[in-house]
Amino acid sequence: LFDVPPQAFTPPPKVTSSVVNLTPLSAPLPCDLEKLERVTQAAFGQRRKMLRQSLKSLGGETLLARVGIDPTRRAETLSVAEFCALANSI
Fold first, then answer.
1. CB-neighbour burial class of residue 63 (10 A; exposed 0-12, middle 13-18, buried 19+)
2. Which of 10, 39, 58, 70 is deepest in the core (most CB within 10 A)?
């Protein structure tokens, strides 16, 4: 919605903060939460790694191919639906 400057906080952080509006889905995405947690932990566990590397322990490129996700993408580019698709494919 809008940014909040560092001077609005004490002590001021070295970043600009943003205010966002989150709208809940009308129904949750069909996904096994334990598997989703495994996928997100692996995907975000190593900063700036491509998914083929970060998801290697869960199937790596084979898993990504099953869902149709480019293995050179990074975790921060995936949607919630794509993470659910990965979790459902384990």
1. buried
2. 39
Render pLDDT for 26-65 as a digit per residue (tens, 0 to 9).
988 899 999 999 999 999 998 889 999 999 999 999 999 9
Q: Which of 40, 46, 1, 32 is nearest to 19 (CA)?
A: 1
Give the ranges where 1-90 is alpha helix by DSSP (H).
33-44, 51-54, 60-67, 80-88
| Residue labelled with tokens 């966002």 | 20
pTM for the predicted model, two decimal places: 0.77
Q: Which CATH number fits domain 33-88: 1.10.760.10, 1.10.620.20, 3.10.129.10, 1.10.8.100?
A: 1.10.8.100
Give the start-to-end residue ranges of the domains of the chain.
33-88
